[in-house]
Write a sequence for this structure.
C-alpha cells in the first residue's frame, strides 16, 4: 500500500519521457503523442485521489494513457492522417518467408526461457516495434497492448478484416525475425 | 470436407497468428495440432507469438 505522494507532479515528471516513447510507438505521430501524454498528465493530476493505494505510478499512468491513445486513434482515423494500409497488407513479402513447398526458409528457433527478464530483449523489441511500418505497428499494438478485438482494429484503421489479419500476421513475423537478428544476433 | 488434414508451415504460421486473435474452428485447430506435433519450427513460432504478447505487456505498463 502506498499513499498519495506529497508531490505527485514531481513523481510524474520523470515518467513523461517513457510515456511519450510509448505513445509515439503506438500513434506514429510526434504531435499526437505529445498531446496524448499531456492529456494523460493533466487527467492524472486531476484524479490524484484515485491513485491512493495503488502500488505502481507507471502502471496507473499507462492505464490512463491507453484511453487517450484510443481517443487519438479514433480522431486520426476520421482524419486519415496515416497513409492507406493497402501497401502494408501486401502478402508478397510474407510469401518470401517460405519455399515452394511451404517450409520455412529460416525456421524459427527456440528462444531462451528467460527472454522476458532480459533487458536487451525488451530494448530490441522496442526498436523492432519502431521499425514496423506505421499501420502494421499500430494494428499490432492495438491488438497486443490495448487489447482491441480485430473487428475494432479494422474499423479504426479503415481496413478490411482480411487486411487486418494480414497486418497482424505481418507484424508478428517481422518482429520475431527482427528479434532473432537484433537480439540473438542470428 | 475436401481439405487435407496436413498443412504446410506457411499455412500453419498464418493460422497460429489468427489463433492469437480469435478462436479457430475445430477443424483448423485439429490441423494445427497435428502440424505442431510434427514441426519444431512452427512450435517455436507459436511460443514466440505468445512470448511477444507477454513481452509487450512487460515493455509497456
Amino acid at each position: 500500500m502506498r499513499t498519495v505522494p506529497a508531490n505527485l507532479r514531481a513523481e510524474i515528471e520523470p515518467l513523461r519521457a517513457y510515456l511519450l516513447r510509448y505513445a509515439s510507438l503506438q500513434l506514429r505521430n510526434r504531435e499526437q503523442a505529445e498531446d496524448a501524454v499531456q492529456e494523460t498528465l493533466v487527467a492524472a493530476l486531476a484524479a490524484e485521489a484515485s491513485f491512493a493505494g495503488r502500488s505502481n505510478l507507471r502502471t496507473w499512468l499507462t492505464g490512463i494513457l491507453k484511453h487517450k491513445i484510443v481517443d487519438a486513434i479514433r480522431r486520426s482515423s476520421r482524419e486519415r492522417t496515416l497513409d492507406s494500409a493497402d501497401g502494408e497488407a501486401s502478402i508478397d513479402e510474407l510469401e518470401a518467408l517460405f519455399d515452394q513447398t511451404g517450409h520455412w526458409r529460416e525456421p524459427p528457433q527456440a528462444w531462451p526461457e528467460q527472454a522476458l527478464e532480459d533487458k536487451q530483449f525488451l530494448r530490441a523489441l522496442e526498436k523492432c516495434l519502431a521499425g514496423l511500418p506505421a499501420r502494421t505497428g499500430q494494428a499490432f499494438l492495438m491488438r497486443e497492448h490495448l487489447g482491441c478485438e480485430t473487428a475494432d482494429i479494422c474499423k479504426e484503421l479503415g481496413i478490411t478484416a482480411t487486411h487486418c489479419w494480414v497486418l497482424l500476421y505481418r507484424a508478428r513475423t517481422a518482429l520475431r525475425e527482427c528479434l532473432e537478428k537484433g537480439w540473438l544476433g542470428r | 470436407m475436401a481439405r487435407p488434414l496436413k498443412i504446410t508451415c506457411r499455412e500453419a504460421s498464418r493460422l497460429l497468428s489468427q489463433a492469437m486473435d480469435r478462436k479457430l474452428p475445430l477443424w483448423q485447430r485439429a490441423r494445427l495440432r497435428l502440424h505442431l506435433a510434427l514441426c519444431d519450427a512452427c512450435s517455436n513460432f507459436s511460443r514466440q507469438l505468445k512470448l511477444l504478447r507477454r513481452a509487450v505487456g512487460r515493455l509497456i505498463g
Summary: Residues 40-59 of chain B form the longest helix (20 residues). Helices of chain B lie at 9-19, 26-38, 40-59.
